[in-house]
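Batch manifest, entry 17 of 40.
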Amino acid sequence: MAVLVTGGAGYIGSHMVWSLLDNGEDVVVLDRLSTGFKWAVAPKAAFYQGDIADRSLLNQIFRAHAVDSIIHFAGSVVVPDSVSDPLAYYENNTVKSHTMIAAAVEAGIPHFVFSSTAAVYGTPATDDPVLETEPLHPESPYGSSKLMTEIMLRDSAAAHPSFTYTALRYFNVAGADPKGRTGQSTAGATHLIKAACEAALGKRREISVYGTDYSTPDGTCVRDYIHVSDLAAAHLKALQRMRAGNGSLVANCGYGRGFSVLNVLDCVKRVSGRDFRVKLVDRRPGDAESIVANPSVATREFGWIPHYDDLGFIVRTALEWEYSLGERNAV
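Output type: structure tokens
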């Protein structure tokens, strides 16, 4: 049996592919390469370039590789872009996920892991780490597009008892594979740690801080940063839980503590040993003020134990990957 990873040439997806292969799984990658890279796909994975909404291609993959599980990363992820072009996000994240889910149900594929987001919560009512039972109030079309897909999965699982899913609500993913095999490579990426590492290495002129008047200790947004390899491990644990006969689940993926934007920038400067220009600008639409995970469901339900819960380590792996990208581009 094989695991189909959509978006497996992208940032998180490429880490997932390596994690699955390290665990002895057969892996198939489907990616249209809009933001991913063919070279980022582990050589032992089968690769198909195409769109997740291509039903004939999906059926071809299902038949050729005896797929029993899907880990679905493919989608658009930039919050401000979703505010300016919401229909594109509903098309790419929701409508195309509908096609993927329908194809999986029709083909009798029993296990589906979905890349969701903490953006489904919006800004929580309290400062406490959020549980999965928190009211869902997305503040951007990006968050809404992901929540709609969660609802489709919930209702599909209710209608088809042989179909189980796990929706993992990511907090802020950062860092790179500690073995140096893959990392965040997209040009112009908006991830804070990625952008700050680029600034530290002179690849960006400056870093913009969007809003300094939030009700947080230093006035900037607070986020829970999770190392991408810990996130990949959570997906594998979630898949193993479903294969063991357990039912559908929604779980947060974060460490349970937050860092402000300025905290992160200070950390990047300290770890890199380099200063860079920071520009303070107005808030941008769609950003929640502060959000930190309560990951107790993931710990309890599938035994997820983070190994890289250290902001300095996260930044160091991101910097090492940026160095390697510079060397790659110089060749």
